[in-house]
Predict the 3D structure of the following.
Amino acid sequence: MHYLVTGGAGYIGSHLVLALVAAEHQVTVLDDFSTGHRWATEGHEVIEVDIRDLAALRSALSQRHFDGVFHFAAKSLVGESGQKPLLYYQNNVTGTANLMEVALENGWGHCVFSSTAAVYGNPQAAAIAEDHPLNPVNVYGDTKLAMERLLSAVHQQGAMHAVCLRYFNAAGAAPLAHRGEWHEPETHLIPNILRRAGGEDRPLTIFGDDYDTPDGTCIRDYIHVLDLADAHLKAMAMLHRQGGFHTLNLGSEKGYSVREILSACEQAVGAPISHDIGPRRPGDPPRLVADASQAEQVLQWRTTRNLQAIVESAWLWEQQRQVLL
Ligand code: UDP
């Protein structure tokens, strides 16, 4: 099969590209390199285009056949989304509409979409299932929900089968293949901890230790990026078998607190990591843990890599990343 991966130069997209190649698929990456990395696309066909530009997208992709598209290209910083809402709507929502336009014109009928647990907003349950109310609390989550709804409406027109995969906290890396997480600015917990541990001159702050959780810090469900990639492959295979429109959570169903993550990182690094305690970060719910039973049923998929594998791979990657700097 030949697949198009939009956002294939980004963190999760570039790991999916590896998994597709390992499964002997042909891959074309589409990226505007606004946040993605050129080194992450070496050896693959790359189309450099901004998905907000429908004319450019059309001219780059017309007459091309793909057996499906994995759609990752999106802006994804919660804080930035509040400051630049139009950028987020244009990139994420208009970009997806443009992509669907071109997909339908060229007869590509299968799409696996990178969604997020941010569509749920503040959790009303200990484990969040797909039927949890959809109530995003930031512009990023609003745009991802709009993208899901756009895909659902396009599906109802009859020419597109789609799966929306709602990720919990993607983490870890494929350091043996020189892939890993590298955002600037970095906002995520594990890379922030490991960049500090690797000697970067940046403060590490735990955002709040007065939550109503066992150790007072927020609990999240961390999922290895390679487990995420496996789920994408299974989701695309399922679409080819049975079609339809599906929305599935991807998580490990295990919750770890910020302090537990810090101590797992200290174990991987083999040394204490200096940090301070700061105020709560606005908009952080105390606990977000997936109920991923639907994904297990529909895709026969479960996570296979535990927290130790996540932090050890992330630490190896951090040491490689320092060399790339
Ligand atoms: N966090 C933290 N310090 C950091 C980054 C994150 O204490 O430097 C906390 C954050 O408040 C949240 C958890 O770690 O409770 C996970 O945050 P992250 O940004 O990695 O993912 P999110 O759950 O916000 O998508």
Summary: The first helix runs from residue 11 to 22. Residues 169, 187-189, 192, 205-207, 218, 220, 258, 281, 284 surround uridine-5'-diphosphate (CB under 6 Å). Residues 2-171+222-250 form a domain with the Rossmann fold fold (CATH 3.40.50.720).
